[in-house]
User: Fold DUF726 domain-containing protein from Coprinopsis marcescibilis.
Amino acid sequence: MPQLHRRPTLSSRTSLEKILPPYNLDKEAKQSFFEHLFCQLASFRNEANLYGEVEVQLQFVDEGFDQDEADIMDRRNDGHAQAIDRWAREFSRKAWVVCCERDEEECPILDPYADTSTRDLPPLPPQDNVAQLLNAIIFLHLTTAEEKQYSALTRAFLCKFEYFGLIDEGAIAWTLKNPEKAVQEVEEKHEQDGLTTRIVDKIRAAHGERSEVMRAVGIGLGAVAGGVLVGVTGGLAAPLVGAGLMAAVGWIPIAGPVVGLIMSGLVGSSAVCGALFGIYGAKSTVEMVEKHTRAVKDLKVVPVCGAQGEDIEVGVEDTLAVRLCVSGWLNSIGDVEGPWKVFEGDDTYALQWEIEALMELSNALSVLLTSQAMEFATGEVLRRTMFATLMSSLAPLSLLKIGQIMDNPWMNARARATKVGAVLGELLAKRVFGNRPVTLVGYSLGSLVIYEALIHLASLPPSETVHLIQDAYLFGTPAGAESADWVKIRRVVAGRVINGYSDQDYVLAILSRLSSASWSVAGLVPVPVKGIENIRCEEVLGHTLWGSKIGECLQKCKAPGTRVIPQTGAPDEPGKSPRERSSVGLSASDMS
Assistant:
């Protein structure tokens, strides 16, 4: 695996030059990079296909499908494999054009037997050159593929093989949004050397030609609202190349079909932006959500702001991906977005859901944590090495008292989370955030919302979902650890699936025993499924600490884009009384 961590400094170049292949790199070095990428694509493809095969095998063994059900599962697995193969082949063909400067048809076939080892390959080129090659490949993949989308598979692949820190998504997004300005920058830079051409006028004319076509079919041109391009459809995706445009690219010091493809991408960028960033825009996201939320009372998507109040939703100039965060309970309305100020980069949103039910749960939890019943139950758990032994020793009266305090609020909020998760899954399937990769992050009942959303996506045809979800970070999830649903989740997520658990979360242990008669809960123990990353979060000593500790847990998982936010006042539970804070943080040393 290449050790590529440092993002190279390309600031001295214009945005357009950043997405062009390096002209000073020899053919042998470019060929070497392509060979590395080809083997890594084969490895990534094989692993992704394996998750689909495991799902079929496990469900057939566990549930004993009849022949009709087995045929359905086989067709779904075939659809998943075909979608993965199609993406990998398409990506390899774009890499071939960029690196080898030859037509796509000459690209080697990425078949099931393709070599996955890079051990005997020549070394990679310098990082700056690799960065430019990757930028060019991604730009072509976005603008020339049949489906105008930034696949979650692409981003997951780049992260897995440590390329992501090298690419410049900001330059790619800005160039897509501002093709005329991008070319103007290059013209101005080369004007002093007498290399200027009138490319801008030709691109502007080509965009005008597209505008006439759009107006003819009743589609308005895009306008920027709330940081997202609005009113542009991806339906007219075929690039229009203005007359004479190709004759005006003499300033590009590279050859081969890559030149024409990049210029075509510039001309067709408006349709690409419409597909990537969605036709609804940030300001109308709420209205779209509300149209699909009749099953729940309260569901909104709100942007997350930084620690000092600055808007960290960078916008389409700087990001090609989305992060959606879901809190698990609320002490105040500010907790909808508050825990997620640890993030920077990407368009970051928080899901506001069922405020009333979550506030009721928070109040009941405060009562529980200061009750004698909870102190006794926690002490019993601490005095035993396994949660299961609690069943034979915990006084029924104590369980009854806890049930009286928590049964209605917990079960009510849990049921709401299940419904909200199904709605969220539907919204994600409808590409409410555009054709961009989505990373999902949640804790407690918020992670249950995400869990249910992923289960919904897993029920849909793989061709509709395989490019959607990049990563899923689930902490303190009140769902069964042994459930076969985790295999489905592993298949539907392109990148990482994180199960953050705490074996000291006694609140979740007792509530789960009351609600599901099981100690095997994902928020308490590892999930025994291949491809699920289990991270023990020992700093979380109680269920109500997930919100305040989420930044530390994300950093432990090496989640991209996390930053340290200085805490003021009580470090664990701002807004809580000292008595409540001391009850929340019960640990083995406290009870001994």
Notes: Strands lie at 223-225, 228-230, 299-303, 322-326, 347-353, 438-443, 469-475, 497-501, 532-536.
